[in-house]
Amino acid sequence: MEAQSGAVAGAAATTTTTEQAILMEKCEQKQKKMKVMVAIDESDGSFYALKWALDHLFGSMGVAPETNPEEVGTVVMVHVQQPFQQYVFPAGPGGAAFYATSTVVESVRKAQEENAAAILSRALQLSKDKMVKAETLILNGEPKDMICEAAEQMQVDLLVVGSRGLGTIKRAFLGSVSDYCAHHAKCPTLIVKPPKKSTK
Predict the structure, then answer these.
(1) Where are the domains of the chain?
(2) Where does the pLDDT of residue 10 fall: very low under 50, low under 70, confident under 90, or very high at 90 and above?
(3) Which sign does the torsion angle of CA 45, 195, 170, 90 carry?
(4) I need a labelling partner for 55 at 20 to 30 A (CA). Which of 48, 134, 166, 193 fits?
(5) SS3 of 76, please?
């Protein structure tokens, strides 16, 4: 009788171990095909966040050089540019109104596009060096809203944003994209803070 109950307990233990192995395998498969969105702008903080994500979320998987990048996962790099408004500028002693001409608007738009292309080209090179499949996305609008919207529409597994390290007063007045995303994104959000600079 004792031998029989020992056999049943052994079978239960084997089943639990097998179930754990299956769960671990499923988690590894999901991790390998993870879709991560990283918000990129010209700041050092956003590039530090991208490097951190590539090193820790993709680089730690022990990927062999011959592995197909699609099996590892995808990083989506999103850059949001704020639309240029034709503001009214007071000009002259009487404060006469001045509107930006269409050539000024067009040159600003072209400069924004070139800036976005340069930023994403640099980001793409980082992902290429780490052999991680990457996609880029350029959006127009308010950055914090557009990043959250894009993360939801693309159904990413994780949103990674850098921290500019704004002080309490600046954050209160200017707001923080990272804080906003942490509270409004519909997916898990990781805020990567850059290392503190040494004062030596």
Answers:
(1) 31-83+119-192
(2) very low
(3) negative
(4) 166
(5) strand
CA distances from 193 to 41, 43, 47, 51, 79 (A): 15, 12, 11, 12, 19
What does the pLDDT read at residue 50?
95
Q: Specify the pairing of strand 96-99 against strand 88-91.
A: antiparallel
Residue carrying structure tokens 């007045």: 173
pTM for this prediction: 0.69
Q: Tokens standing for 116?
A: 């976005």
| Partners of 88 in beta bridges | 99
Q: What is the DSSP letter of 43?
A: S
| Residue 108 near residue 84, CB atoms below 8 Å | yes
State the architecture of 31-83+119-192 in CATH terms: 3-Layer(aba) Sandwich (3.40)
Q: Characterize the bridge pairing of strands 73-81 and 34-39.
A: parallel
User: Is residue 167 pLDDT above 60, yes or no?
Assistant: no
